[in-house]
Amino acid sequence: MSKMSTDDTLNERKGRSTNESRRRFLKTGGMLTTAALLTPAIGNTVFAHESSGDGPGSGVGFAVPAQNSTIVLVHAAWADGSCWDNVILPLERHGFTVMCAPIPMTTLTDDVAALSRALERTTGPVVLVGHAYSGGVVGATRDERVKSFVYIAALAPDEGETVAKVFYRDEKHPESPKLAPDQHGFIWMPDDGFARAVAHKASPDRTRIMAAIQRPLSIHCIQEPVPTPEWKSKPSWYLVAEEDRMINPKTQHFMASRMGATVRSLKVDHSPMISAPQTAIDIIVEAARATPRP
Predict the structure, then answer these.
(1) Which of 79, 82, 214, 227 is most buried, most CB within 10 Å of its CB?
(2) 3-state SS of the chain: helix, strand, coil percent to 5?
(3) DSSP secondary-structure letter at 121?
């Protein structure tokens, strides 16, 4: 056999080997792409499960686009954003963006302005969640991003009312602490008030931490009349805490009814996002799923 014919044979074999390698690569690449599409996603992705539940372990799922609502959580008096730490990650696992908005608690006007600045950082529809005192703040906020409200045992004064007026509307629980401003006009929660009334179903360790990190509320926050609240024109949800020792459940039912809110009434204490977080998560998710999205 001549050298030319030998070279031709070798080249032909090399070409077949190259083509076979290319086919194997493309086939493997296609398999990897398919696997990537079927692998459960992380981050801002939720999963569709075969089972009816959508919590951890509720079934093998596939990735679907995340819901684009932003959940903005607003803390109450004597607290900061850490009061929501039991609900933040579960809400993110449902596919929502979550933000805790800090408010200074110096005047109602200051708090509304601080919340408005936080809302400027959001995109898309917002579900605004308030607890206790901050119910007055979220209702007074004017922002087109906000599409719905969730009140967690929160105060909901009407136009011209003050937070103090609705707070003291009905008889207080025997364990409710006596509150009075100090010489600077700020109200502090007695240390034992957290374990007795603010979160009486939470662990002793947690209530000790709450007492240690508490932030005071200015008397001006609860004495300033509110403007026309936005819950009059936007959908709202209300979690009534039937075992609340700070805000009488009768008061909560009154406010929720006046608002025309979707009510969920449960045997939880004043701070369910701490002592019974799943109850808070469920109502927030319910509201967020019902919130219009572009």
Answers:
(1) 79
(2) 45, 15, 40
(3) T
